[in-house]
Write the structure tokens for this entry.
Amino acid sequence: MNIGIFGTGVVAQSLAPGIARLRHSVMIGTRNPAELMERGTPAQGTQKTFAEWSRAHSEIKLGAFAEAARFAELLINATSGGASLEALKQAGEENLRGKILIDASNPLDFSKGFPPTLLVKDTDSLGEQIQRAFPSVKVVKSLNTVNAAVMTAPKSVGGGEHTLFLCGNDAEAKAKVSEFLRALGWADLIDLGDISGSRGMEMYLPLWLRLWGALGTPMLNVKVVRG
Amino acid sequence: MNIGIFGTGVVAQSLAPGIARLRHSVMIGTRNPAELMERGTPAQGTQKTFAEWSRAHSEIKLGAFAEAARFAELLINATSGGASLEALKQAGEENLRGKILIDASNPLDFSKGFPPTLLVKDTDSLGEQIQRAFPSVKVVKSLNTVNAAVMTAPKSVGGGEHTLFLCGNDAEAKAKVSEFLRALGWADLIDLGDISGSRGMEMYLPLWLRLWGALGTPMLNVKVVRG
């Protein structure tokens, strides 16, 4: 399948090869590919410049947002939360129309330092904002509750015995995303209903950040234990 | 140990007998005990009037907030989040001074129906508000992330193989609360640091409510799986 990933940071750089390993064809989408390839500093949380990373991952294509959107049968939003709506606007409604978009982003606001606060919460969420801005896109919120390295390697934490959430308005899109996630190794998926489930999934982040602090590693997740 | 529980709703009615079973002496604190005993309708989520419940639980004492505070060596706040600060004011700073208070409440706002929103979030929390209002009290946030029935019976969900969080500014108070929680059956406790950890613990509620909806039961909890 052709997969388009919006974003070039640590999440996209972790997702892209993890997904390409499953024999999907992957294109990373960015605002300005030429400028990105000339950038002399690594993205936050990464070790290499994007050009160096790109040379080490020749299987990953690179294009403008619109190009990645046209290329893809399945899209993943891995941009920072504050930049997501603008990135999708640049991709163009006509290139996104009818497609499934996994929204893996979190609306984190680092402007006042660490810990970040949330740009949107409680009565709304980034997942819902994206769905409202692009009504023809089938938005499925998922993957945002785990570290980038865990997204495509759930077995790296406790042998994979933990839970991934998803939500969205389109049942068929959720079924397709579930199949895609199972292929990545996610055995325990919980469907939280319509896209407003994004509120809880995004508001979980402050707890997740505290768990990282308490355990000293972001290689963690929760398993939902039932009665 | 003498335990005082603030609140008379479903959480207090579940906590009180569960704690009394461990041979603690328990007093429920309320605004007006006489009025409560005359009330003709059950509290939300309960089946009996408080007087009927009280007759069936003669081991549980009842007193005004101030009386329960004076009685107790360890206090638990199980009032609704919006009423917690006022309840503690009625208990009186002089009766609370230096005592440990487990804050099990959530700042839920049901004024616009279901799902509730949060009265405080993101840059502050109810746990912190209580700690600021009563600086001499050793506030430990805990128990608020599970259903009332699970609080004193963790083994009723998945044999008890799941996690309870706590946070607070006083290390000794957290050690004493941890001992108390272990006696209730909580084997996996995670200390999230100072009282500002309440933010994440309270903002988890929207996800918890969605899980209840998805699984069809509030008898659930999360187990934190480590790398």
